[in-house]
């Protein structure tokens, strides 16, 4: 009797695995992801970096550990490797998906992107800076109808008044003929509540915008699952200078 570790058994298992992943890919090519369960999507991505091994058990374990597809796709490289069976190589597909999603969000064409509420701003930025591990401070240049003209990266790192001088912040707004702007940055720790430094920077830049004639209409702090709007929570900051 052949043992389960024999080359024959291994070849049979590899053949079954290859056939299964081939069927998964064919399903995707025929109908997209509409008929896929969450674990099957993770399984499909894991196969990109796993030549022969059956990915179904680790995909199910990942969904169980992170409690859902979105959390799996947002997990860091280190967190993914906490799942039994997932290592540096077969995490490739998941990390590739994250990188492509982030690139698409950052480089998508901005036509007809209307940012007329804090929620709309949060939804737009959540995929681009909401997943970053460092604080990213960005400027959203808008026209009079709240259409996005351009998003500009101002600084990376802990938000500090010395890092976001009004000259650097408003230069892209002037260059892009913005009539109004929105400030935004992310909190990697997940808590959107502003720090004292966040408020200091907001007041400084709101006052600068009033002087330049390019009003700052909001400063939105983006976290992974929530946000904070200075315009909604601290409207006194945005009152006209008298």
Q: Can you tell me about this structure?
A:
By secondary structure, the protein is an alpha+beta fold. It folds into two domains: 7-103, DNA polymerase, domain 1 (Orthogonal Bundle), CATH 1.10.150; 108-238, 3-Layer(aba) Sandwich (Cytidine Deaminase, domain 2), CATH 3.40.140.10. It has helices at residues 7-31, 38-46, 56-66, 69-74, 77-80, 92-107, 118-126, 166-175, 196-212, 230-233; strands at 136-142, 148-156, 180-186, 216-222, 227-229. The chain is elongated and about 70 Å long.
Summarize this, please?
The chain is of the alpha+beta class and 242 residues long. The protein is built from ten helices and five strands.
Could you give the topology of this structure?
Blueprint: H1 7-31, H2 38-46, H3 56-66, H4 69-74, H5 77-80, H6 92-107, H7 118-126, E1 136-142, E2 148-156, H8 166-175, E3 180-186, H9 196-212, E4 216-222, E5 227-229, H10 230-233
Parallel strand pairs: 3-4
Antiparallel strand pairs: 1-2, 1-3, 4-5
Helix pairs in contact: 2-3, 2-6
